[in-house]
Specification:
The complex is a heterodimer of chains A (442) and B (246). Chain A has helices spanning 2-14, 17-48, 60-71, 86-93, 105-111, 137-154, 159-166, 186-224, 227-232, 238-282, 290-297, 303-329, 334-357, 365-373, 377-380, 382-387, 391-417, 420-423, 433-441; strands spanning 50-55, 75-78, 97-101, 118-121, 175-177, 180-182. With 442 residues, chain A is mostly helical. Chain A has two domains: 45-170, abc type-2 transporter like domain (abc type-2 transporter like fold); 185-275 and 282-441, no CATH class. In chain A, the strands form two sheets. Chain A has a four-stranded mixed sheet with strand order 2-1-3-4. Chain A has a two-stranded antiparallel sheet with strand order 5-6. In chain A, a hairpin with a 2-residue loop joins strand 5 (175-177) and strand 6. In chain A, helix 8 (186-224) packs antiparallel against helix 10. In chain B, 41% of the residues lie in helices and 25% in strands. The longest helix of chain B has 18 residues, at 168-185. In chain B, the strands form two sheets. Chain B has a six-stranded mixed sheet, sandwiched between helices. Chain B is an alpha/beta fold and 246 residues long. The chains are: A mainly alpha (442), B alpha/beta (246). The A-B interface holds A 1-2, 5-6, 8-9, 12-13, 16, 224-227, 229-237, 418-419, 422-423, 434, 437-438, 440-441 and B 14, 16-17, 38-40, 48, 51-55, 73, 76-77, 79-92, 100-101, 103-105, 107, 211. The structure holds adenosine-5'-triphosphate (ATP) and magnesium ion (MG). Adenosine-5'-triphosphate (ATP) sits between chains B (14, 17, 19, 37, 39-45, 84, 194) and A (423, 434, 437-438).
Chain lengths: 442, 246
Amino acid sequence: MKFFNLLKKELAELLNVQTIISLVVAMSLLMLMGNVMTNTIEEAVKQEYTVTLCDRDKTDFTADMLETLRGYGAKINEVTDASEDYAKLLDNSGKESLVIIPEGFSEAVEKGEAPQLISIARMKSAAMMSNMSNTNSGAESLIKKAISDVFSQQAGLSPEDVTLINNPVKINSHTVISDKSAEVSTDMVMSKVMMQNMILPVIVFVLIMMTSQGLMSGISNEKIDKTLETLLSAPVSRTAILGSKMLAATIVAMLQAVLFMVGFSSMMSGATEGATADIANTIAAEIMPLDQALDKLGLTLGVGDYILVGIQLFLTIMICLCLSLVLGSLVNDAKQTQTMIMPLMFGAMIPYMISMLADINTLPIAVRIFVYAIPFTHTFSAIPNLMFDNMTIFLIGLAYQTVVFAVCMFFALRLFKSDKILTTSLNFGQKSKYKKATKSED
Amino acid sequence: MEKVLEVKGLSKQYSKVLAADKVSFDIGKGEIFALIGPNGAGKTTTIRMISTLLTPTDGDAIVNGHSVLKEPEKVRQSITYLPDEAGAYKNMTGKKYLRFMAGLFSTDIDTINGYVERAEKMCGLGERLNDKIGSYSRGMIRKLLLSRAVMTKPALAILDEPTSGLDVLNAIEIRKMIKKLAAEEGMSFLLSSHNMLEIEFVSDRVGIISKGHLHVTGSADELKERYNAANLEEVFERVVKGNEVL
Ligand SMILES: Nc1ncnc2c1ncn2[C@@H]1O[C@H](COP(=O)(O)OP(=O)(O)OP(=O)(O)O)[C@@H](O)[C@H]1O
Ligand SMILES: [Mg+2]
């Protein structure tokens, strides 16, 4: 009953207007990202089959070529503009990319030389997905194909010969992951898995930061306002005080995790929709469907895997809460709260960055030990480890995190049961108020 | 007289400072006792040891028959503690705060309601109790916290600098409240202050503390007579200087 009273208060503290707003914002961001991805991918797919052309040669040959392009099913936007200022050219045409067939194009073809094609594309940003829909690559390859068709016809080759020349070898790609293999290229697997492996760590990172921030500012405010002293002098057990704080923070963190996962899966389904459209249009269905291939490779996670990931995430959150509780208790004024979150932030940031860029298991041994000593590393490597069947590393990570959690919990309990929670403080270089007080007294 | 608090040679050694050095005094039932001394004298340290927040490095204190060392849980049932410059949960309304705190002292709904009602009447905040504490003035928070500290009718209420930072009118009001509770309900109080003139009005007995030493205890009149002084401030000056010469 007293515990329930405490728990209710802790929950109310954590679920205030600010936290709810930031949660809603984060959720809508994820959903928005899903939408954006669907749009960009769809846009890019459309672009593959749209050719914006400026024909400055105007010969029978180019007219033929355009006809051939239409024959492939391409949509052709013709632009007539003699400007040599390419920026202006794009502005006038209202397009982001365009191909110019310069004068003398047909002449070169007739002479049997490789003709020149001018390809212009506007780069508006360096973001990964921002330039997807303004390249000419689709247009270029269609034109190349058209010209080589013309050449081969001139040379008297049959369409079968042409196909053979263009694809002299039929590559039958197989990807092998540990002991499983599937008929799919690694590029395809990568493109599918990458998105998931990019967004999931972001969510974990945000989750770690949000939960620790909440609990840490909660406990440090209690210390600054001295409500903690009041609590500790009241007839309730200290375990109940600590327990209610931990439980409330855990409940809120789990709630956040669930909401994030909902946002994430809606985002992923958005992205997959786009990607499926892509595959349906460009690649003939001669290869194994991607989902099936991923399944065969063990890259899709089963129920068992999700339970393991869940346990993993739970442990991570518990460690994070213990650490924030301990760190938050050492705070003496509001400014320090921000400093205190730094260790946690770096603890999450380092493995996040590294796991994004490299496979931790291939790093030099000294670096690997350092990185694996950070408990959050095991969170970021959990899903890749499960996907690629590194069960041993996953389980060692889980065991290590359990030990770290036990140690942190032990210290948190000791802190709450002794008077250290009121007397310990960290002062980074600055003079403690106690030292100042003694000095001014002398 | 029945003793509510017996402090026996309490000492606290911080890493560098000996903040309390064998402090001994006692408080009877219905008595208001004040520790007075300058900043850094060791008042808060002594009070925190009696409130079971700090572990003494030496000595013991018996509250209502229970030792702070051996039975801190039992001690916590007999006391309430109001820290100096304490705040309250800013996102809670005054009413919610009182209810929350009452819930820590009892599990019985009727008892809790009784506590809350008592505090509501005593604090005099009226309708403002429905507002968030974040919107309260310093004096309002003090009154809320003080009525919280006495709503459970503890055997001993420990108030660290109960009137610091308040204007004269608010300070007088709080002093009156304390005196009334001691006289009418037999509650005992342990106060601290560095305002010696003010403490002369409110307390039955005072203890003069500086640099961790509790030099003398006695009623204000006794001490004034003994040190031939016009007020407690002069007593304090003589006590501290006299001890330094020795
Ligand atoms: N946590 C601590 N660590 C180290 N020294 C401390 C700590 N708390 C207090 N002290 C020192 O103990 C001595 C007594 O401090 P205390 O807070 O008890 O004084 P006080 O009488 O309450 O003063 P004030 O009137 O300013 O509240 C001071 O010298 C102070 O610097
Ligand atoms: Mg003090």
